[in-house]
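Encode chain A's predicted structure.
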Amino acid sequence: MRIKTILMLRRCQISATKAQLSINPEQTPTFRSGIVEGLILFFVICCFVSLSAYRLDLPALHEDEAFRIVPALQILQDRVFLPDTYSFKIGNKIFPVMLTPFSGALNSYLLVPVIYSFGLTVKIIRLSQIFLAAIGIFLTYILCKKIINKKVALITVILLAINPFFAASATLTFA
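Encoded structure for chain A:
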């Protein structure tokens, strides 16, 4: 009887030691799937950027793109010539809110640091729009992952990244 008790205690000690040394099987696949998931998302965003940036200089500068650039340049030069109904005044500076009754000024504000840092070229303006669209793809993934699941989120961003209309609308700025 004593031998059985000793053997039983040794088995419990050995199994307890194995349990302490073993890796939790639930954590390992989650960590690996997170890395794979991140790599797939990174690959999808890189594919989108490369597809969108192909022949970036074509077509020539569009009227709506120039329409967004002018207020950004005026903000850089501290000259904003917009009606009072579409802007607000802080001190002596005027900040546009709406460029037209249907078009906001957020895109112009986002272009200010880009123009200041890299200069004013068609390629730089369009690359900044592609960068914003890539952030949009990432945010779409996060939203779909929280609302639905990872698989649907990955399928959604893949379809969004290879959609030619999304790539065209991300590259060219329309009012």
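Strands lie at 87-90, 93-96, 98-100, 103-104.
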